[in-house]
Amino acid sequence: MEFDIRYKPAHTLAVCNLNPNEMVRAEAGAMVSMTRNIQVEAAARNKDEGMGKRLLKGLKRMALGGESFFTNTYTATTQPGHVTFAPSLTGDMIVHDCQGEQLIIQGSSYVAAPDSITIDTQFQGMKGFFSGESMFFLTATGYGPVLLNAFGAIETLDLNGEMIVDTGHLVAFTAGINYSVIKASGGWISSFLSGEGLVLKMQGQGRVYVQSRNPSEYGATVGAMLPPRSN
Amino acid sequence: MQHQLIDTPDFGMLQVTFDQANETIVAESGAMVAMDTGINMKTSMRGGLLAAAKRKLMGGESLFQNTFTASGPGERLFLAPGPEGDLRAMNLQAGETFMLQSGAYVAHVGDELNLDTKVAGLKGFFGGGGFFMLKVTGPGTVYYCSYGALHEIDVPPEGYTVDNEHLVGFTEGLQFNVRKFGGLRGLFFSGEGLVCDFSGQGKIYLQTRNAGSLAAFLHPYRPVQAKG
User: Checking phi first, is residue B54 left (phi over 0); if not, alpha (psi -120 to 50) or beta?
Assistant: First the structure.
């Protein structure tokens, strides 16, 4: 199983080639196209779990993240096949190769991974609640490629020490890094006025992926110009 | 008339250079970017009011189209589609057909080229937006656009499935069925996805982004209407 990312960087499409009996799991809205020998199953996150439990897990993700998060699985049957994936916004995709080390992913940056990777929801506690960017994190554990998307371009930052990352620009980071949510500057008022609000202080050693545009900023810029909605 | 597709794939634009007077090209209203002053632009409802109204109501295309006519050699015309993305040309022989998602039409050359709006899938079965396609029959050249990159697929023997909103067009020789897709998503969110299952021999053209997803992303950021 491999991801081949085409049309970089603005309008990327990931082509996932599957050999017979290989499987890829993807965020529910990401599928663009596929060969017809691919078998699709909804929300089959873990085959041992019953429907009720899977549903509860999906609801938990929605409640924590304030957004949809369901997955479909795509399995090639007797012949090789492929599935293509794309995110909803303009921007790049990248493959992070997990080698046993956990990857922590900002929820809407996750696209797809094979079943050798376990994806789970990480409860942020008060940190997630106060970040204000409807931030929810997923964890990817195991061995294999994880397909991530970004709004805009993706920059890979190697961290050894500490740095500050805006919550809206975070894509993912490796588990050797700890984070805390802090005010962007000393006081609450100046933090608010700076337009940065709360930011993430990342500490440790590892890799941080950031995106060059912030979906919330974009939404606020364009959304304010649209006619009011009734609900 | 010579054409050149420039600024592809992200911001495709069509540059036309006319060889002689009285050459024409027809374009979707609003597509003109720039042109030499000698070019004459005439606005009309192609095929008359009924045909134009059908296109407008069914296909979501504009009621009017513009015909650009050169007055001399060397005159230049630039045309561009609305969404960001790629722009391509499809040359059709006499009688050869090409099905286009109705919003993908940008321009065409050829007096005998025929454009007709067709219902794709089951009429009235899908509430709201519906699903209409433009049937283009040669001879002539049609220029079409995609939102995002344009991805080309040769339909394999086992067939091919495409998300409805990512479909741009397909060549003749293909049959397809429309069905619902999305599993659990449909239980919780309005507007469950539709896909097209293709079989036969031919090519499918996909777009790597779709306007509906962008609109869905932006919707929560709209201001909320005051009650009362």
Answer: alpha
